[in-house]
Each structure stands twice: as C-alpha cells, then as structure tokens.
Amino acid sequence: MKVKGNKNTSLDQNFLELIKKGGINFIFYGLNLAIVYLIGIFITKYYGAATYGRYSIIKALILVIIIFNTLGLNTYAIKLSSNKNHYENGFFKSNFILKSYKIIFFVSLIFSCIIFFLKKNVAIQIFGDKNLEIYFQYFPLILILSVFLNYNSNVLKGQGRVLSFSFVSSFCNNFIFIGLILLIFNYYSSKELYIILSLLFSFFIALIISITKIFPLKFYKEVKSIRTKNILRESFPMMLSSSMIFIIFSLDTLMLGFFDTSENVGVYRIVTQVSSLNAVFLIILNSIVGPKISNFYSDSNYDEIKKVVINASKIILFITLPVLIFILFFSTEILLFFGEEYLKAKNSILILSICQFFYAISGFVDLILNMTGKQKVFSKITMFSALVNIILNLILIPIYSIDGASIATGFSILITNILGVIYVKRSYNFLPIYLPFINKTINEN
Asked: What CA–CA distance (Å, rounded) separates 43 from 39?
C-alpha cells in the first residue's frame, strides 16, 4: 500500500497536539518514574537487594501474565475505544467492553487458582527462594486487580482521555504503594510481609478509581452486539505480539531469578529501569499516537498516519539522544548512587541503554501494525524475537549472569524493531523513524 509523501513536515495541528498532550502525560509519567526509583532506593537500602529482587520478580510476573489473562483484549480495547463505530462522544455503540470483562474475569480466575495452589512449588522449585512463598500467597488477588486495572487504563487511552489514563495506568497505584510502605515502615513494622500487602492494597484502590472513570457506561439506543469469537479472533494476534514484547522485556528478570540470586535480580532491575529512561517519551506518546493511527486508518487517511508517526519520532529523537549520552558518560556515578554492589552491572547499563535508544526512535512500529490490521504480522515478528530472547537467556545467563541477560534482551529488542521497520517501509512506503537529512530521500523512493 503506497503512501504519498508529504513534503511539509513543519508544525501542524497534530504536531502541536502531540506536544500538548505529551506534556500532560509527561508530568504524570515523570512523577511515576521518580516514584519507581524511590521505591527501588528505599527497598534496596532498608530491606536489601534480595528483597527488591523478590519484589521485581512479582512485578515482572504481573506484566507477563496480564497479557495472557486478557488474551490481547487490552490492546484491542485501544483500537475499539478510538473507533467511531464502537465509541463516540462518551457513548458506546457496541458491547465490546462488557464481553471483554466477562472473558477477562473467567481467564483471570483460572490463572489465579493455579498460582495459589502451586505457590510453594513456584517459589522454591522455580526461583529457589522460599521467602517468595509469602508473595505468591497474595499474588492471585494482585493479579486479578492488575488485569482489570490494565484493561480500564487502555479503554481510557483509546478514548483519548490522556489525563485520566496517565493518572490511572501506573502513577496512582505506585503513589499509594510508596506512601503505604513509608508509613508502615516508619510507624508500624519493617517486616517484608507488608511490602506485598501494600502492593495489594495499592492495586485495589487504583482499580476502584479506574472504575469511577469509566462507569456508568453510556450506550447508544441501538447497540451493536459483537460475538465473543469475533472479538477473540481480532484480539488473539494482538495478545501474541504484546505478550512477546513483554516477554522480551520481562523474561530476563524471571530467568535471572531462576539461574541466579534474588540479590542479582534486584541489581539488574535497577539497571533496566535506568536504561529505560531512553524509552520514556515513547511510552508517553504511545497513548496519544495509538488512537490517532486507529482513527486515520478507519478513514483510510495514510498520509496523516505517516505525518503523526514522523512528527512523534522527531520529538523522541531529540529528547532521548541527550539522555543516552548522559547515561553513557555517567554510568559509574549513576550505579554508585544505588550502592557499590551495583557497579557489577556497568556493562549491562551500557548495553541496555544503547538498545533502548534504538527501540525508542523506532518504537511506533507496533502501533502502526496493530492499529492497521497487521497484528498477525507483528505477532510473528515478536514471536521470533521472543524465541531468540529465550535461547540467548538460556545460554548467556548461566555464563555471564547480569551481562548475559542484558545482551539477550538488547539483541531481541533490536531484532523486533528492525524487522518491524522493514515491514512498515515495504507495506506503507515510509520509514517510521525520523532521521535528519535522510527521511526525505528514503520516503520518496
């Protein structure tokens, strides 16, 4: 499918909207990022790197299992909520959200029961840490809450309610969580048990808030009924692609927990969070760019898809390049801030930062493919990358520990986005990356 080149890439309405809404999103995401680092510093300093490693394993499991529990319905919710045939001006035109709730609840209940009854086996036989058992005792409830919170957040994202999405998606529960652990530690108890209990309560409050943002649901008089099998037929490929992406970004933590100590997991988790600073603005703009691509695609407006992607990529390039340079030059000082034991991860922070930079400047390929009916293609790309990631983790972690995990993850990130960029270029005749002085020549060929 050919897309006519747009010679004028100067400021336009969409570009200004990206900056405005991106700024709103940045405020919450920036605050959330600060809270995430505060959590890491606090738990590491007062409970130890091993405790932070256990907390990181739970967080990584949540990210991975959410995708399988929702069967891709969370990603599909963005597409339908931004589609005028399903939602417009505060009214739902189809029953996709009610059908999705039923499916998500049923699947989540099955997963939760399995994890609860196998909690001891998972803690000791898989991760080799008996102290994880208390985490898995409460994990099933956390999982159900986080699944519905994630789905509601994506509905808000699809509706273009940037402020609500930014607040609900992660800031709210992290803010409540850090508040609780600080209060409990200072005024009640320093037992590790209260970390997981605080996490449980934070997800519960955040879910209640997300429900108030969506309910009561308002429907048109004539509501289109979507068959369950049709919903799953569209969402399942999105689950495959999304699950593989989260596997690539989370499996290293889980496999490191399997092959190595919880302490090294805690060290590695800090490194991944620092290196992910390169992808901050990609995550921020995703909530704005995704619905726009879906809307433009429903109107067959491919020129606007190209413009919004290139403009967003331009913003990301000029913001993330200084971040990358800062991390590369001050990596030692950054790691020493967390403690001398973190210096063992210096190679890892360099590897992951460079790969995260390339991920950021080419990171809209998943949105383009998922929002334009190419989700099956992207699922194949990510499945291949995830397979490479698993193989490399199995080979490299036992030999190189933290460095092995970073090499496996970094290489998988590069493969995913390189293949995605190539496919977008061939299918839509434009390069979804902003490269100064190069884009114009490439996009016109």
From this structure: 6
Q: Give the C-alpha separation, 389 to 412, whole Å.
A: 6
pLDDT in tens, 233-283: 777 666 666 666 666 667 777 788 878 777 788 788 888 878 887 777 777
232's tokens: 């799953």
Residue 2: pLDDT band with limits 50, 70, 90: very low
CB 168 within 8 A of CB 152: yes
Scanning 159-279, the segments in alpha helix (DSSP H) are 162-166, 172-187, 193-214, 228-259, 262-275
Distance CA 288, CA 290 (A): 6
Sorted by sequence, the CB contacts under 8 Å of residue 416 that are 6+ apart come out as 245, 248, 359, 381, 382, 385
Q: CB within 8 A of 435, min separation 6: which ones? A: 442
Task: Round to whole Å and give the CA distance between 411 and 423.
Answer: 19
Q: Is there a contact between 81 and 267 (Cβ–Cβ < 8 Å)?
A: no
Structural contact between residues 135 and 122, judged by C-beta atoms closer than 8 angstroms: no
Distance CA 238, CA 242 (A): 6
Higher pLDDT, 328 or 254: 328
pLDDT in the model for residue 184 = 93
CA distances 410 to 237, 256, 350, 403, Å, are 24, 15, 10, 10
Peptide bond into 216 cis (omega under 30): yes
Tokens describing residue 294 = 């879906």
Phi, then psi, of 260 in degrees rounded to 5: -125, -165
Q: Which amino acid is at 59?
A: K
One DSSP character per residue, 10-40 reads: S--HHHHHHHHHHHHHHHHHHHHHHHHHHHH
Average of per-residue pLDDT across 373-380? 78
- Determine the length of the chain: 445
How do residues 277-321 score in pLDDT, each as one tens digit?
A: 777 777 777 767 777 777 777 777 778 778 888 888 888 888 888
Provide the phi-psi class of 219: left if phi over 0, else alpha when psi is between -120 and 50, else beta.
Answer: beta
Give the chain's mean pLDDT. Answer: 80
Give the Å distances, CA to CA, from 32 to 39, 176, 178, 284, 332.
10, 11, 11, 12, 24
DSSP string, 358-394: HHHHTTTHHHHHHHTT-HHHHHHHHHHHHHHHHHHHH
Tokens at 186, concatenated: 């200072």
